[in-house]
Amino acid sequence: MSPSTRLLGAWAFLGLVPxxxxxxxxxxLQGSTKGAxxxxxxxxxxxxxxxxxxxxxxxxxxxxxxxxAGNALADxxxxxxxxxxxxxxxxxxxxxxxxxxxxxxxFLRSRGFNYVRVLxxxxxxxxxxxxxxxxxxxxxxxxxxVPAWPDYWSQLRDLIDIAYDxxxxxxxxxxxxxxxxxxxxxxxxxxxxxxxxLAGREHKVILLEVANEAWQNGFPGDQGTADLRELGKYxxxxxxxxVALSAPPGGTNAALxxxxxxxxxxxxxxxxTRDVRTVEGGxxxxxxxxxxxxxxxxxxxxxxxxxxxxxxxxxxxDPIKLAMAxxxxxxxxxxxxxxHSRAGIRSLEPFQGQPGIDAYVHLAAILPPDLPSWLRNxxxxxxxxxxxxxxxxxxxxxxxxxxxxxxVVRNTGKIKGSEFVCFPIGILAGGVELEARRPMSFExxxxxxxxxxxxxxxxxxxxFTLAQGPQAYIVKGVFTDVPGAPPPPPARPxxx
Length: 496
Description:
Blueprint: H1 3-13, H2 27-30, E1 41-43, E2 46-48, E3 67-69, E4 72-75, E5 78-80, E6 82-86, H3 90-96, H4 98-110, E7 115-119, E8 138-139, E9 145-146, H5 152-165, E10 169-175, H6 184-198, E11 205-211, H7 221-236, E12 243-244, H8 253-260, E13 268-270, H9 283-287, E14 301-303, H10 319-331, E15 336-339, H11 342-346, H12 363-366, E16 375-377, E17 386-390, E18 393-394, E19 410-416, E20 419-425, E21 432-436, E22 440-445, E23 452-458, E24 463-466, E25 474-479
Parallel strand pairs: 6-7, 6-15, 7-10, 10-11, 11-12, 13-14, 14-15
Antiparallel strand pairs: 1-2, 3-4, 4-5, 8-9, 16-19, 17-18, 17-21, 19-20, 20-25, 21-24, 22-23, 22-25
């Protein structure tokens, strides 16, 4: 999808061009509207898919099927921000310790999460010995024979039902260790039976992801890519549940385009950088999702396995960076973000007490639920609400300067009509100076506490300084020069 196509769609969503204006997809994207996605298109506000089948064997999905509305997720209650959590071993825990499963799900729901990302199989890799999830019998990498679970499908149904009954949907990542099911015919049969078991439960599943890091888990090379796309289309032809293929290798837009352009996928899953060695430190992984909007032919993206406490390669334990990674992703037009922690991988330690597990509690109350579909800006372009300063230099971020004392790593934002939101991140000890480009009223929130810390009304050219505080904030406001603009937000309890 070309950047201009996405921009036109966003303009239409905001009412800046007629919603019925014809939006022409580039050639690669048009290919993904065929087959089950017949009638699907990138329309006003983002990507939309229509014409999908109504389930398998005549069983109708329940109420609340998750769909894309622009770049946001929505169900029967309207749009919502996709906030998931890695729980790879959930199916094993469902089988071996129901009390723990229930306690985990209730705790995760209380922390603001609305879905869990689970594996439907794992165990070929020797690091999972004794922790296998086995839909079929197989011999592992180190020669250990693992028998199939005779109750596999009933356990999967129970897991999805229990999670939904307790307020969480499920993202099923199907082939984690696809090596344990090497034949394509066996893989297709697994998908067929999976869909049979999801019939009538489609509303409880937020996403079907064909594979986890497919290139190193049973789908190598060009043939692996072709098989992924074939299996994705198999699912898309037979279910209304949103479908993703896999996160590609390399962490680049080119890799996303190679895998997803022309595919049947509704969502692209990406594993963003965990590089904390740059001058920005831990803020580079926070802002990396900005790039994927420019990936040609790629549907809306999920930050599917980002840096977190105990993640491989590098970890992040700072709650403000973890919270703002989700906020920044939604602000970059991504509908989904997953909190990825050591506790969620093999379930050898509890979720309670994981660094950052409480960082997301207040975000849904602060942010608009359709935020991913608002028109984004990079914080420097003319449409941005503020001019940002670093060491008194306008239009600069502090990583561009030598020995900076004040400024931000980024201050990206979103606009919908008269409303705006922006996200100053990586604020230095000297704070950050911002200058209003338009008349406005706004409120500044601490993402970790949900408290209002500042309220201001400014005219064009007026400046103010945000103290470093937690190093990042959420700023919500209205442009007061728009006819019919809503009044400034009321003061929050405990705020100035």
